[in-house]
Specification:
Helix content: under 10%
Number of domains: 2
Radius of gyration: 26 Å
Number of helices: 0
Structural class: mainly beta
Order of helices and strands: EEEEEEEEE
Length: 128
């Protein structure tokens, strides 16, 4: 715990509880830096509430439209995203796609993969 000497405000860093939604009982002990002080340490019990991070926006930079011909070598289209604020939620939380079954949406790698295929039944126009 650190104390701002100007405002008297205390800051408690709980790195181990990062993104762990819930309620936690915490005990802070304040003691005198003088080892020979007769003032006993003071203990404070309080509760820390960690709320879920609320996304305000997800900015997606999608791959450009592409024409892929049956029988061509595999094609990989990267994309990127930014969460505002950076809640560090996995992409699976807010992505859905409407791709044909042979295409792969690699969410962790932020890419759409068009594997090489000779199956003519996959021909068509798709929006994702």
């Amino acid at each position: 715990m650190t104390t701002n000497t100007v405002t008297g405000e205390h800051t408690l860093r709980l790195e181990s509880l990062k993104n762990e939604i819930g309620s936690y009982a915490v005990k802070a002990t304040l003691s005198n830096v003088d080892l020979f002080s007769l003032i006993k340490p003071i203990e404070y019990d309080f509760t820390v509430f960690i709320h879920p991070c609320a996304l305000q926006n997800v900015i997606l930079t999608p791959p450009e439209s592409v024409s892929f011909e049956i029988g061509e070598p595999e094609l990989i289209l990267p994309y990127s995203h930014v969460q505002v604020p950076d809640c560090q939620y996995p992409l699976e939380v807010f992505f859905t796609t409407n791709l044909p079954t042979y295409m792969i949406h690699d969410v962790g790698g932020e890419q759409v993969i068009f594997p090489q295929t000779d199956e003519i039944s996959f021909a068509g126009t798709y929006n994702a």
